[in-house]
Amino acid sequence: HNRHVGPQPDQQQPDVPDREVAATMGKKKDNRPPIFVAIDKGQDELVEELLKDEPGNRDLRNTDGWTPLIAAAYCGEHDIVELLLRVGADIKATCRDGDTALHYASAQGHLDIIELLAKKGAPLELKDKDGETPYNVAGKNLKVRKLIQE
């Protein structure tokens, strides 16, 4: 699922992710590890390849201390969240601010991901550095609050 709307740049997307391209993908532009670039672009197959090629990508940290699971939860990438959990990503991992994937999914209102993370044992009462739980960061989003309370 491509996040961009409208005409696409003249870019041929290969059917099979090119590992050479993947290896250099985020490096030149913004120094993000390739797995974070792939998650940001919603490239499920590429994320899967990067995890197969380098299992350590599973809990890799970016400069903000985010893990791929946190990034996927933030971006609303349900299939990637599912994939990361299947390969054993740390559901309790926190970023530098103490937020978990569930905090980010709650703040963004991604109900399907909140449900998945809760079902898989994400800590519902864990507080971040500001003392906020996933329920608190949901703010006024009543659907999210109701789901977390269930």
Automatic annotation (TrEMBL):
InterPro entries: Ankyrin_rpt, Ankyrin_rpt-contain_sf
Region (Disordered) residue spans: 1-33
Keyword line: ANK repeat, Repeat
Gene3D superfamilies: Ankyrin repeat-containing domain
Biased composition (Basic and acidic residues): 16-32
Repeat region (ANK), residues: 64-96, 97-129
SUPFAM superfamilies in the record: Ankyrin repeat (SSF48403)
UniProt keyword Transcription regulation, yes or no: no
Signal peptide: none
Domain of life according to the entry: Eukaryota
PROSITE patterns: ANK_REP_REGION, ANK_REPEAT
PANTHER family reported in the protein's UniProt record: ANKYRIN REPEAT DOMAIN-CONTAINING PROTEIN 39, ANKYRIN REPEAT DOMAIN-CONTAINING PROTEIN 39-RELATED
Protein name: Uncharacterized protein
Species the sequence originates in: Chlamydomonas euryale
Classification of source organism: Eukaryota, Viridiplantae, Chlorophyta, core chlorophytes, Chlorophyceae
